[in-house]
C-alpha cells in the first residue's frame, strides 16, 4: 500500500512539473507561431515595426528600444540555437509544401545567425551606414508608428532611451578599439562629420523633434496643447540627453582616429578571410569564393560596357571612355542650380510622376501586386552625404505605407538613372516584392514580417531584376538616355562585385575602388558592410538564369506573369530554394496539356 501511495505522489508531482513546463508544439505551424513570438518579444524595435502584439504588451514594447550590447546579441544567438534544435525535430516529409519551404527558410536564417557568433566584433557600432548613430534616428523618424496621441506618447518615451542605447554603442566601440578592432581612418572621419551635422541644429530643428511635430499635426486626437507639451518634452530630451550622447560618441571616434589606418578591408583583422567568407555566404546565399565573384564582376562589366558603348554611339557620343561619356551625360541631365530648394522640390515631384507611371505600366507584367501604397520622401539633410536610396516596408496593420527614401546630394541631382533607382526601390522592385510578401496570408507570419531578417540575394536580386525587366518591357522606348541610366546602374552593380571583393580579399585601397568607377560614399558603404553589395548581381543573375531556362524549356507554355506569380508567391528564400521552386513549377507547367 505504501508503495502505491508513493507511486501516486510521484505521478502527481510529475504531472505538476509537466504543467509548469509546457510541452513543445507538435505542429510546425504552432512552432512557427510560438517561436516567432518569443523572438519578437526580445526586440522592442522589431515588435514596434511590425506591431506584432496587441494591448498592454505591445504598448510597453513601443516605449522601449532594442539594446545595442554584445550581451543582447549573444542572447539572440542562444535563442537561435534553441530554435534550430527544436525545428530539426519535425519530420519534413509530413509537411505541406509551404510548411517545408518555410522550415528550410527558417533553418537557413537561424543557422546564419548562429554562424555569425565568431564575427560579432567585426561590425562597427558607430559608422555612417548602419551604426547606432543612424539606426536610432531612422527607426524613430521613419518606422515608429505615430498616428495618434498614444503613439506620440510612446514615441517620446522611446526617445528618452536613445541616449542610453547610444552609450551602449559607444561602450562597445571602445571595447572593440581596446582589442585592436578599429574602423579605417576615413570611416571615422565620415562618421564624425555625419554625427556633427546631426547635432548642429537647434533641438527644435532636429529630425527627432521635427518629424514628431510634423506627424502630430496630422493626428486628429492630438490637441494643440498636447502637441506643444510633447514637442517641448522631445526638445528637452534632445538638448539634455541626446546631443550630449552624440558628443560623447564623436569624442570616442576622434580619440580612435590617431590609432587608425587607411587599410579598408577586413583582411586586416585576425581570421579576416573567414569573416569575409561568412559575409559572402550570408549575403549571396551561395558558396562562391571571392575570386569567383570578382571574375563574374569583371565579365559583367565588359558585357555591359559594350552595350553602353553601342547605345552612346547611336546618340552621337563617341569621344572618350564609356565612363567619361556617361559622366558628361549625367552633367547634361543635371537639374539647374542643383543645391537650390527649387531643384530639390522639383526632383521629388519628378520622382512621384515616375512612380505613378510605373504603377500603370506594371499591370501588363504582374497579376500579384500589393495593396499597400508606396510614397517617396527625401532623406533628412544630415544623412544626405552618406545615404543610398532605400525602401522601408509598410506597417503590417496598414498604419504606414511603403516608403522610398532618396538622398538629395549634388551627385544625385540629375535625371540620369532616376527612373532606374525608382523601379528598383519601388515598382516593380522592392515594394512589389516586400509589400506583397507582407500581405500574403498563405505564408507563416514570421516570413511575412521578416522576423528573422531579410535574405539579401533574393530581395536585392529582385530589385535589380526589376530594373532590367523595365528595360526589357519597353519602359525606355524613345528614351535612350533613360536606358543608359538603367545600364549604368547595372554596370554599377557589376563593378560592386569587383570592388567589394577587391577591398576585402585582395587588399584594394579606398582610392583604387574610387578609380575603378565607384563614388566615395559607396566605397565607404562596402567597407563597413562587407559582402552585402555582392548580393544584388548574384541574385539578379540567378533570377534571370531561372527565367530564361524556364522560357527555353516551356516554349509557348511559358507566361511571364505566371513566372512572376511564382517568384513573388515563393517569398524571400535562399537562391537554392528559389531554384528548387522554379524547377518544380516548370515540371508542372510542362505536364499541362
Report on this model:
It is a single chain. By secondary structure, the chain is mostly helical. The chain has two domains: 28-267, no CATH class; 273-545, no CATH class. It is 64% helix and 2% strand. The chain is built from 26 helices and three strands. Strands 1-3-2 form a three-stranded mixed sheet, with helices on one face. Helix 10 (185-199) runs antiparallel to helix 12, helix 14 packs antiparallel against helix 21 and helix 17 (418-425) packs across helix 20 (456-472). It is globular.
Query: How far apart are the termini?
Result: 75 Å
Task: Give helix % range.
Answer: 55-70%
| Number of separate domains | 2
User: Beta fraction of the residues?
Assistant: under 5%
| Nearest-integer average pLDDT | 94
Structural class, by secondary structure, is mainly alpha
Outline of this structure?
This protein is mainly α and 593 residues long. The chain is 64% helix and 2% strand. The chain folds into two domains: 28-267, no CATH class; 273-545, no CATH class.
Amino acid at each position: 500500500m505504501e508503495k502505491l501511495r508513493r507511486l501516486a505522489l510521484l505521478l502527481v508531482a510529475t504531472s505538476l512539473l509537466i504543467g509548469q513546463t509546457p510541452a513543445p508544439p507538435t505542429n510546425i505551424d504552432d512552432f512557427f507561431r510560438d517561436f516567432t513570438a518569443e523572438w519578437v518579444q526580445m526586440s522592442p524595435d522589431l515588435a514596434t515595426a511590425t506591431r506584432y502584439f496587441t494591448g498592454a504588451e505591445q504598448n510597453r514594447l513601443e516605449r522601449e528600444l532594442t539594446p545595442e550590447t554584445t550581451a543582447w546579441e549573444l542572447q539572440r544567438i542562444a535563442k537561435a540555437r534553441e530554435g534550430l534544435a527544436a525545428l530539426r525535430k519535425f519530420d519534413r516529409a509530413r509537411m505541406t509544401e509551404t510548411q517545408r519551404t518555410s522550415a528550410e527558410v527558417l533553418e537557413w536564417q537561424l543557422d546564419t545567425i548562429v554562424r555569425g557568433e565568431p564575427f560579432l566584433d567585426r561590425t562597427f557600432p558607430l559608422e555612417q551606414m548602419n551604426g547606432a548613430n543612424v539606426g536610432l534616428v531612422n527607426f524613430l523618424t521613419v518606422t515608429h508608428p505615430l498616428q495618434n496621441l498614444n503613439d506620440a506618447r510612446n514615441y517620446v518615451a522611446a526617445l528618452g532611451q536613445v541616449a542610453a542605447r547610444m552609450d551602449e554603442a559607444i561602450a562597445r566601440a571602445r571595447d572593440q578599439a581596446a582589442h585592436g578592432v578599429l574602423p579605417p581612418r576615413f570611416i571615422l572621419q565620415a562618421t564624425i562629420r555625419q554625427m556633427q551635422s546631426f547635432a548642429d541644429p537647434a533641438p527644435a530643428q532636429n529630425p527627432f523633434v521635427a518629424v514628431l511635430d510634423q506627424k502630430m499635426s496630422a493626428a486628429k486626437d492630438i490637441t494643440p496643447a498636447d502637441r506643444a507639451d510633447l514637442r517641448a518634452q522631445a526638445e528637452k530630451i534632445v538638448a539634455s540627453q541626446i546631443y550630449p550622447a552624440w558628443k560623447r560618441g564623436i569624442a570616442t571616434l576622434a580619440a580612435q582616429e590617431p590609432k587608425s589606418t587607411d587599410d579598408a578591408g577586413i583582411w586586416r583583422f585576425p581570421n579576416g578571410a573567414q569573416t569575409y567568407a561568412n559575409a559572402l555566404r550570408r549575403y549571396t546565399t551561395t558558396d562562391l569564393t571571392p575570386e569567383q565573384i570578382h571574375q563574374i564582376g569583371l565579365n559583367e562589366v565588359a558585357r555591359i560596357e559594350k552595350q553602353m558603348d553601342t547605345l552612346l554611339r547611336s546618340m552621337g557620343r563617341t569621344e572618350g571612355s564609356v565612363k567619361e561619356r556617361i559622366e558628361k551625360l549625367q552633367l547634361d541631365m543635371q537639374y539647374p542650380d542643383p543645391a537650390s530648394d527649387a531643384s530639390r522640390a522639383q526632383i521629388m515631384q519628378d520622382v512621384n510622376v515616375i512612380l505613378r507611371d510605373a504603377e500603370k505600366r506594371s499591370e501588363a507584367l504582374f497579376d500579384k501586386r500589393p495593396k499597400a501604397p508606396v510614397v517617396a520622401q527625401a532623406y533628412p539633410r544630415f544623412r544626405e552625404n552618406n545615404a543610398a536610396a532605400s525602401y522601408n516596408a509598410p506597417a503590417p496593420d496598414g498604419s504606414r505605407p511603403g516608403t522610398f527614401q532618396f538622398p538629395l546630394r549634388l551627385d544625385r541631382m540629375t535625371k540620369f538613372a532616376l527612373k532606374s533607382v525608382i523601379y528598383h526601390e519601388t515598382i516593380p522592385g522592392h515594394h512589389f516584392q516586400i509589400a506583397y510578401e507582407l500581405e500574403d496570408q498563405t505564408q507563416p507570419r514570421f516570413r511575412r514580417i521578416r522576423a528573422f531578417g531579410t535574405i539579401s540575394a533574393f530581395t536585392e536580386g529582385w530589385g535589380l531584376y526589376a530594373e532590367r525587366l523595365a528595360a526589357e518591357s519597353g519602359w525606355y522606348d524613345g528614351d535612350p538616355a533613360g536606358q543608359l541610366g538603367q545600364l549604368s546602374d547595372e554596370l554599377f552593380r557589376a563593378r560592386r562585385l569587383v570592388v567589394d571583393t577587391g577591398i576585402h580579399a585582395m587588399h584594394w585601397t579606398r582610392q583604387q575602388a574610387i578609380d575603378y568607377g565607384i563614388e566615395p560614399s559607396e566605397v565607404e558603404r562596402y567597407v563597413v558592410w562587407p559582402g552585402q553589395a555582392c548580393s544584388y548581381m548574384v541574385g539578379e543573375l540567378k533570377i534571370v538564369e531561372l527565367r530564361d531556362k524556364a522560357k527555353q524549356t516551356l516554349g509557348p507554355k511559358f507566361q511571364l506573369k505566371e513566372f512572376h506569380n511564382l517568384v513573388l508567391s515563393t517569398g524571400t528564400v535562399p537562391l537554392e530554394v528559389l531554384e528548387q521552386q522554379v524547377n518544380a513549377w516548370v515540371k508542372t507547367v510542362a505536364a499541362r496539356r
